[in-house]
Amino acid sequence: MNKSNHRLSIKPRVFVAISGGVDSSVAAALLKKQGYDVTGVFMKNWTDNRFNCPYKEDRESAMRVAAVLDIPFYTWNFEAEYKKEVVDYMIKGYRSGITPNPDVMCNQKIKFNLFLKRAIKEGADYIATGHYVKNQKSKIKNQNDKLKLKNDKVISIRQLAERDLKFQDTYQLFQAEDETKDQSYFLWTLNQKQLKYCLFPIGDYLKTDVRKMAKKIGLLTANRPDSQGICFIGKVKLKDFLSNYIPKRSGDILSIEGEKLGTHEGAWFYTIGQRQGLGISGGPYFVVSKDIKKNRIYVTKDKFSSELMTKKILVHKINWINQSISKNIRAMIRYGGEIVDCSIKEIKNKKIEVTFKKSQWAVAVGQSIVFYSKTGEMLGGGVVT
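and the corresponding structure tokens:
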């Protein structure tokens, strides 16, 4: 379908990623009520028959939503791309000893890349998802406070505006109204070019209100339980999933003093701060560190041991959504975690040094760190290195 002839209606056209859950269902319903020309799309991502991923059930649910809303519905297959960009990325990360975040990668490589590009190609003016986050457009000055001309005369932004040069549209992501469901943490890789096409209709609502709306509309997703864990794994434990791709190899579990406490099946299956699945008595114990080369993990009984507390970290792969970075910056190191005050300093090799006002517990290499302003704006993020 070509964008030049995709519709007779003058309504703005939006392709909604309908997963089969209540959030994306209500997102589509709200947009239709607001007067958009809505099309529903179910993305078939990677699945493995060895794991109970309910994609058939999800797709059927999405189709029923589209039928109730009386909107067109398509299924787009991104299996190969998802396997390469998300699944293989996660497996490679754990194999090397880091703690990757597949949800962040799914948003970066699939939803707001492949899905967005195809939707625009098919004639969409916007895409929408059921993420709990707010996208606000504002008119602010260009990233450069001043522009220097060839004759070395400096002209301020105000002077440029007076010369009929418009301020640029800038999109800002803010935490959702429902703080317990806010998903801004997973969207730190987005950029201005993507955000101008993105709608997040349920960011202004509480989850309880979303379910009430779904029930009032007559959507079968109203009482459907939220998905848990990593979508392509289903109910399978992470270690059991990874063991299909990373071989098990027995190694020692040692105390931080060097005492052998037990054995494990591979240091790469564990992450910093983990206490479940260690299989040693006298606990609970918490993973303090890993030695991938020697296949050892070190543990402690003291949850708040100094070895598990971190005051300063290095971050790479940084992405700033909005370059107007406030000095009063805050950070979150894991989804659902506390947002804490910090300071940042640029260092060489495109890295930044982050110093927390108070030490953070169980920071793991590979995790995403996401930055916020005092007003709840999500500024961007990076990866702990």
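(Above: one complete record from the training split.) The chain has three domains: 11-136+173-223, 247-300, 308-384.
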